[in-house]
Amino acid sequence: MRNSGVLLLGASGRLGRMVQAFWPAETDLICHSRTVRPGYVSFDPLSDAEALCAAMEGRRAVLCLSGITPAHAAASGNPLSLNAALALAAVRAAGRAGVPRLLLASSAAVYGAARGPLSEDIICEPASEYGQAKLEMERDAFATARDCGQAVTMLRIGNVAGADAILGGWREGMQLDVLPDGTTPARSYIGPASLSRAIHRLCTADDLPGIVNVAAPGVVHMGALLDAAGRAWTPREAGPAAIARVELETKRLEKLVEFAPNAGQAQGLVAEWRAYLAQPDSSQ
User: Fold this and answer.
1) How confident is the model over 130-153, as pLDDT tens digits?
2) More confident residue, 231 or 75
3) Taking a C-beta distance cutoff of 8 angstroms, is the pair 176, 147 a contact?
4) What is the pLDDT of residue 113?
5) Which residues contact 52 (CB under 8 A, 6 or more apart)?
6) Which of 3, 8, 74, 200 is the most exposed place for a label (fewest CB within 10 A)?
7) How far, in Å, CA of 82 to CA of 73, rounded?
C-alpha cells in the first residue's frame, strides 16, 4: 500500500534513536536494525537486497541513517568506504521498490575548513577521511540514482546536541580552544527534537532539492553550550589549525521547516538534549 509510513534504516544508532524519540505520531515510522531487536525489522542491507527492497515496498519515504562513523571504524575495523556501499544498496533497492523519496544521511564534514556560511552549492574540500568518505558516498549515490531514475536527497547534518564530541562526548577535565578574541569555536547545531521534526517534514514535503543542510539557524559557541549544560571545561590557547567558525547555510531547510526562536542557541539545544535523555530508550 503506497504511503504507508516512513522506513528508517539504521534506526538503532544514536541519531536513529533521537529521530524515533520525537517522531510525530501522524506518520508511521518503521524502524530497521541490522541485528535482531524487538519491534524492528532486521536484516543486513549489504547482504540481503531482497529483504531491503521488501521493507521499502509501499513506503512514502525512506530515510537511511546507516553508516560508519570514525569512532565505529576505529572500534570495529570496518572501512569508512562502507558509507558508500550502504548508500548504494539503499538507492538500488529504492529504485526497484519505486520509493517516491529517499533521504541519505551525509555530513557537514564534507565542507572541510571552508569559510561560511556554507551553502549546499559550494565546492567541497573535506579535511578528514570521514568527510572524504561521505563526499564520495554522495557522488556515487547521485550517479547510481540517475542511472535507475531514483529521487534522492542528501542530508548534510551538522552537529547534533548529545551526539557530538562536545556535549555528548563531555568528560571530566575537558579542554576547549580559546581564540584570540576570547571566544570558543562556534558551530552549527541542531537538537534531537528539532532534528526529528525537520526530517519528518523533509519526508513528507514536496519537491525536495538534491542536497539540504540540516542544522538550526545560526551558530553556538562550544563554551556556551557546556556552560548551559553545567559541564565544566578548561580553556587552552587555540593552535593555528583551530577552525573558529563552521556555519551551515540553512535557507533551503528554513523554506520547509519552522524552528523555535532558540532552537540554535545553547539553552534551547541543552533543553532538547535533556528531553531526549529523559526518554526510556535514549541509552540503548
Assistant:
1) 999 999 999 999 999 999 999 999
2) 231
3) no
4) 85
5) 43, 45, 89, 90, 93
6) 74
7) 10
